[in-house]
Design goal:
Distance between the termini: 20 Å
Order of helices and strands: EEHEEEHEEHHEHEEEHEH
Radius of gyration: 18 Å
Number of strands: 12
Largest sheet: 7 strands, mixed
């Protein structure tokens, strides 16, 4: 996450102090490093009615944080969050589910929030549709800095009351795409809107063969009050992740088709 520092002082977006800033990766660099597997570029998928896959180095970087805050996020959240799906000694699998043992709910939840927050406060054009989340920037920042899900001092309001996270393991029951290849597909942070405002806005990305979605609802939404999908992040000592065929997920299926088309056009196998 840490890059070359700027030579002049600017306000750090996390601590709000005036300091030289680091070149922050919006999506942790280690994710892209695993997908690239030694290659210089990958195929980045842009979501939409007609998804587009194009070659990219994958790095979305901006001067956002001072060195102290970079180190804080790495130490408190990224060291755990970026390795969660690769610690094989803590993973149990059957035909229907992946179980991750010794799960640290608050740490992982806030890891996902750090990604949303960085995208929302950045000025990068690729994240322009995520910019509305900046309205909740002070809540995100407070929770990240204080390592808590509580919004108020009494602990009655929590960030996970209105931002819900789900995780699915992507599979291909037809075996046309091997699991190893699915694990190498990385869908950039994208969004899908519900049919109405009450249906929420759903921010998602893929990494290591998992689809991670953060769903943001109005606090008064009746959908939110009845929101109990399989795959939801729950505050317990293990994480139970359902396996889902990527064929059932339109955005992911179309993105994979876009990668296949890009490969055919360029005449070589993509690295992601």
């Amino acid at each position: 996450m840490v890059g070359e520092a700027s030579s002049t002082a600017h306000e750090c977006r996390l601590c709000r102090e005036s300091k030289p800033l680091e070149r922050s990766h919006i999506i942790p660099k280690s994710f892209y490093r695993r997908v690239k597997g030694g290659e210089s570029q990958l195929y980045a998928v842009t979501a939409g009615p007609t998804p587009l896959a194009r070659q990219s180095n994958g790095d979305q970087i901006q001067y956002l944080l001072c060195r102290d805050c970079e180190s804080f996020i790495s130490r408190q959240y990224e060291n755990y969050g970026t390795q969660l799906f690769t610690r094989t000694s803590q993973i149990i699998e059957n035909d229907d589910y992946i179980y991750i043992l010794k799960f640290r709910h608050t740490e992982y939840y806030l890891f996902i929030i750090t990604i949303l927050w960085r995208a929302a406060v950045s000025d990068l054009q690729i994240y322009r549709e995520i910019k509305p989340l900046e309205n909740a920037e002070s809540i995100f920042r407070q929770c990240i800095r204080n390592k808590t899900l509580s919004i108020d001092s009494a602990g009655k309001l929590r960030i996970d009351d209105f931002i819900k996270i789900t995780i699915f393991r992507l599979t291909d029951p037809t075996n046309e795409i091997p699991q190893e290849a699915l694990n190498k597909i990385m869908y950039s942070l994208s969004l899908e809107r519900g049919k109405t405002a009450e249906d929420g806005v759903h921010y998602f990305f893929t990494v290591d063969g998992y689809l991670i979605t953060a769903s943001v609802f109005p606090t008064s939404s009746p959908v939110l009050k009845q929101w109990y999908p399989v795959g939801r992040l729950r505050n317990r000592s293990y994480l139970k992740i359902p396996k889902v065929s990527y064929h059932e997920l339109e955005q992911i299926r179309n993105g994979i088709d876009a990668i296949a088309n890009a490969r055919d056009v360029n005449g070589k196998q993509p690295s992601a």
